[in-house]
Design goal:
It is a single chain. The protein starts with 22 loop residues before the first strand and ends with a helix. The protein contains twelve helices and seven strands. It is α+β, with helices and mostly antiparallel strands and 316 residues long.
Length: 316
């Protein structure tokens, strides 16, 4: 085959996912993204179940530098003299879904970065981070309480987070006041530049590959489990990968319940279908036998009538 001038050439590049003993998966989201919040609520127990086999890291998305014309708007939507702002899409729309100023979201982003630094950076799980985020969504995710200090302190208590450690981190990283850099928010910006156009909010990538399709527990769990070597695949993958409700299945494992009691696997649908088909077949056979018996008796009765009719005529 040779290239011909003036003719288009189609080039396809494909690669295979290489399974590994330990899987790395990253979540991209913002504190005020409803789609990401729903995933966090449902995936928490799965993250805990995978803690011995997979490394997790959360990434937040914020805007680098104020892109608004008004100085007043920049002060409302940004922190640190306009350095860090609420995330904005390529169409110019804010990524937040609550009617609050952008600096509130930047502040919550920094708070979560500090919680991760204190409780998740070393172990790649961050149980306190997960507890904080899920509890925050439950208690403070509203326009009235999103930036309410009492609500946040209450979340700290329920999540096992030491407030003093987080306050220290917020200050030592550079804070949010004045035209100065914040080291943790700079890391957020650097991560965005590193991943570039591949950043989608919300999204998950597993071993650097983005999980395609809808951001759902089932899709992400399947992507993580498929990236393990067969001899390194955690038990929860074997038990719950084909479950009709992955979250429920994993929760039953975490609670110590037997898998057989709760599994409700998709194959059960086919088993039920086969049983129904078998019952229908049996019913058809029984009806056919009953009909055949009825018809046989009818014909036998007619034959007996035909045989006795001449005798009855002679008696008359």
């Amino acid at each position: 085959m040779k290239l011909v001038s003036g003719h288009s050439v189609r080039l396809e590049i494909a690669w295979m996912v290489v399974p590994t003993k330990t899987v790395q998966y990253n979540l991209w989201t913002t504190p005020a993204n409803i789609g990401g919040n729903q995933f966090l609520l449902e995936f928490k127990n799965i993250a805990f179940a995978l803690k011995d086999s997979a490394n997790f890291k959360p990434y937040s998305y914020i805007g680098s530098g104020c892109k608004l014309e008004s100085t007043d708007d920049c002060q409302e939507e940004c922190t640190n003299g306009g350095r860090y702002c609420a995330g904005i899409t390529s169409e110019g729309e804010f990524l937040d879904e609550l009617d609050l100023t952008g600096n509130v979201f930047v502040k919550e982003t920094l708070r979560r970065q500090c919680i991760w630094k204190e409780y998740g950076e070393d172990d790649g799980v961050g149980e306190e981070w997960w507890n904080y985020v899920v509890t925050f969504i439950d208690k403070c995710y509203s326009e009235a309480f999103f930036d309410d200090e009492d609500c946040i302190v209450d979340v700290y208590k329920h999540s096992g987070v030491d407030k003093s450690k987080i306050d220290t981190c917020l200050n030592e990283s550079g804070g949010l006041d004045g035209d100065i850099k914040n080291t943790l928010l700079e890391e957020v910006i650097m991560a965005e530049k590193y991943f570039g156009e591949f950043v989608v909010i919300p999204s998950v990538n597993v071993n650097t590959f983005e999980v395609e399709g809808e951001l759902s527990v089932e899709n992400v769990f399947a992507a993580i489990c498929s990236n393990f070597l067969s001899d390194a695949k955690p038990e929860v993958c074997s038990l719950c990968l084909d479950a009709m409700n992955v979250t429920e299945c994993v929760s039953s494992q975490e609670n110590g319940s037997r898998f057989e009691k709760h599994k409700n696997v998709k194959s059960g649908r086919f088993l039920l279908l086969n049983i129904l088909q078998l019952l229908l077949l049996v019913a058809i056979i029984l009806v056919a036998v009953a009909l055949g018996t009825y018809m046989y008796r009818g014909y036998s009765h007619l034959d007996s009538v035909d045989e006795t009719s001449p005798q009855e005529s002679e008696l008359v």
